[in-house]
Amino acid sequence: MLLQIKNLKIAYEKAIAIKDISICVDEGEIVTIIGCNGAGKSTLLQAISGLLKPVAGQIIFDGKDICKMSPQQIVTMGIAHAPEGRRVFRDLSVYENLLLGAYTRKDKKIKEDIERIYTYFPRLKERWKQRAGSLSGGEQQMLTIARALLSKPRLLLLDEPSMGLAPFLTIEISRIINEINNKEKLSIILVEQNSQLALRISKRGYLVETGSIVLEGTSQELVANDYVKKAYLGI
Ligand SMILES: Nc1ncnc2c1ncn2[C@@H]1O[C@H](COP(=O)(O)OP(=O)(O)OP(=O)(O)O)[C@@H](O)[C@H]1O
Ligand SMILES: [Mg+2]
Q1: For site-directed labelling of 94, which of 5, 126, 150, 187 has its Cα 20 to 30 A away?
Q2: H helices within 55-121, ranges in order?
Q3: Percentage helix, strand, coil, to 5, in the chain?
Q4: Burial degree of 127 (CB within 10 A; 0-12, 13-18, 19+)
């Protein structure tokens, strides 16, 4: 087991965003978290990457409880977060953004890694000198994922990678996520409102509603579930 979250509870000043969540992720798996606006999906990812500290519960990564670690220590442990909303450093170039993704690394293979990661995202290679803020939305989304990969993660957290993308780019992004999962041998937690896409590329999934897990199973089981069909797949 690469990641195990036990009875996690997270509160903002006035509200409890995560009530009691337990999930696990195995080595090499793509696990999806689906749920609608405000369910607590991004809050969960922020807790895993150390940006939010839980009120209760444990987050065990590679056998160690990471709850008290800093975000930087957590990156060094092997968890990378591609946040929602295309948070690139707008005034820096594509290449500089990628270098920043490797800020915790001390090895000398960063340039080789950037070349390897360009093979997933050829558009980023073509635009390596371009100011990140002038990339299209889809390209910024790709840069967010590519930058996360530069920290050499064993677990990649993807928050709404398909948000705001045209249908053909959504298909392209899901193809790339699959390719990365196969070739880089890493685990992925995929948070999506596009449940159809998420369940197509993941092996297992959890459905979150108002801070609790209401359903879990293989992606096939979730797709076949009547409630999921009606409320989340519109079929
Ligand atoms: N910084 C914050 N301060 C206070 N409350 C917050 C904060 N961020 C999120 N919340 C609240 O926590 C709950 C969960 O929010 P979260 O962003 O995790 O949802 P989400 O599932 O990612 O939704 P979406 O699909 O819209 O991105 C919501 O009720 C939200 O209003
Ligand atoms: Mg969110």
Answers
A1: 187
A2: 71-77, 94-101, 110-118
A3: 40, 25, 35
A4: buried
Cα 59 to chain centroid distance, Å, stands at: 16
CA of 35 to the centre of ligand 2 (A): 9
* Residue 20 Cα distances to 10, 90, 155, angstroms: 8, 37, 22
Band of the pLDDT at 127, cuts 50, 70, 90? very high
Which numbered atom of ligand 1 lies nearest the CA of 193? 25
Superfamily classification of domain 3-87+155-233: P-loop containing nucleotide triphosphate hydrolases (3.40.50.300)
Nearest CA to ligand 1 atom 28: 38
**Ligand 1, closest atom to CA 211?**
14
Using CB atoms within 10 A of its CB, is residue 163 exposed (0-12), middle (13-18) or buried (19+)? middle
Per-residue pLDDT tens digits for 31-54: 999 999 999 999 999 999 999 999
Say yes or no to pLDDT of 235 above 90: no
Global pTM reads 0.96
Q: What residue owns the CA closest to ligand 1's atom 25?
A: 37
